[in-house]
Amino acid sequence: MHYKAEIDIMPLKALLDPQGKAVSASMNNLGLPEVTEVRIGKHITLNVEAGSKVDASAKVDEACKKLLANEIMESYEFELTEA
Amino acid sequence: MHYKAEIDIMPLKALLDPQGKAVSASMNNLGLPEVTEVRIGKHITLNVEAGSKVDASAKVDEACKKLLANEIMESYEFELTEA
């Protein structure tokens, strides 16, 4: 079966997010001081072919660990839907 | 009131996503040929201070248009939750 995964990868809360900090500062300059605490990560969508949702979940988890996320600096979460 | 926004910014479907293509190819080499159609975008979280959800939504939309997303190459969507 085909599954579609939506993965969010974010910098760990304990770490500085320099890109997010820069954007937060820019919001002020753009006249949007109401916007704060910007954090920037990655959003990844992919298709996975697997026999079951459990199997698909294991494969996406492996893809995250091996390639997509750097677990020293980032955390990830994902949702699977049948496509 | 405080609202939290979760924004997803993805390359437009009509455009090539070279980073996603590279990752799709790497999945094969990593022993995960079941993973295909990888597309990579940005996931942004931020806080926004606004009088109402409609007002908060307008501010996040403005932030996306002015700074976060490049609408020539990217589409965005977001969800707001009261924080």
Please identify, by name, the CATH architecture of chain A.
Answer: 2-Layer Sandwich
**Low confidence ranges of chain A:** none
Distance between the termini of chain A: 8 Å
| Helix proportion range of chain A | 25-40%
In oligomeric terms, what are we looking at? homodimer
Which descriptors would you attach to this protein?
Mth169, Chain: A, alpha+beta, elongated, 83 residues, 34% helix, 2 helices, homodimer
Describe the structure concisely for a colleague.
2 copies of one chain form a homodimer. The first copy, chain A, is an alpha+beta fold and 83 residues long.
Description:
- The structure is a homodimer of 83-residue chains.
- The first copy, chain A, has a single domain, classed as Phosphoribosylformylglycinamidine synthase subunit PurS (Mth169, Chain: A).
- Chain A has 83 residues and is of the alpha+beta class.
- In chain A, strands 2-1-3 form a 3-stranded antiparallel sheet.
- Chain A is built from 2 helices and 3 strands; from the N terminus they run βαβαβ.
- At the A-B interface, β1, α1, β2 and α2 of A face β1, α1, β2 and α2 of B.
Set out the fold topology.
Two copies of one chain form a homodimer.
Chain A: E1 2-11, H1 18-29, E2 35-49, H2 53-68, E3 74-82
Antiparallel strand pairs in A: 1-2, 1-3
